[in-house]
Amino acid sequence: MALKVIPVAIIEDSINDADRLKEVWSTYCQKNNLEVKLDVFTDGESFLKAYKFQYDLIFMDIDLPKINGIDTSEELRKKDNEVTLVIISNSPKYAIDGYSVNASDFILKPISGTILNEKMKRLIKIIQYKQSKNINIALKNNIVIKSKDILYIEVIGHNIVYHTNLKTITCRGTLKEAKDKLKSESFFRINYSILLNLDFVMSIDGYNCHLTNGETLYISRNRKKDFNLIFSRFLGGTL
Q1: Structural domains in the chain?
Q2: Residue 92, preceding bond cis, omega within 30 degrees?
Q3: Angle at alpha carbon of residue 196, lines to 145 and 192, rounded to 5°
Q4: What is the pTM of this model?
Q5: Digit-coded pLDDT (tens) for 1-47
Q6: How do residues 68-80 score in pLDDT, each as one tens digit?
């Protein structure tokens, strides 16, 4: 899945550092045929107030006025635990703090084009994977669910049932149609009637697949070998 645009937010109170990162990011986009879509915030409060899940990548400076970068990131994670976050700082001693806010990387200032290019190889893969799990699925009566919220999809007669953490939704269709909508390899058909989201698998016991919500689903004998292979690749991050 090739990306055409990566909406980015920079939270940086230093005008010089913000301009430097903007320049480096714009150059990266030009070299990689990406549309430049970038917003800059000079403090954490204004960023949090404006945040509406509109960014795929966030560069967060540590040393910010009013609320520092780690505290701002903690508040961000209360809203959104998925968005890709990169901590930036003048000092390497803050690198470890990024783990507490689920940051994907740490970059030491001043940021160079060479460093950004190298970091983006991994960050692009992370963003692509998250996007593949977060597709909006339009169902009946203008109901829209996100693919990342689906535990599994079940076919019953001529209907398919979308099982999520909060509700189940029944509509007309087939598992093939549902799979085509998802466009994600994290879903695997474990038997004739069930398409499972591998993100919600807690453990495997023989032909029994135990989910994080306490349900147990059956893996058919003729799909067990392929399931073991796909699930191993999934856990290894190679899907």
Answers
A1: 8-132 (3.40.50.2300), 137-235 (2.40.50.1020)
A2: no
A3: 120
A4: 0.62
A5: 567 889 999 999 999 999 999 999 999 999 999 999 999 999 999 99
A6: 999 999 999 888 8
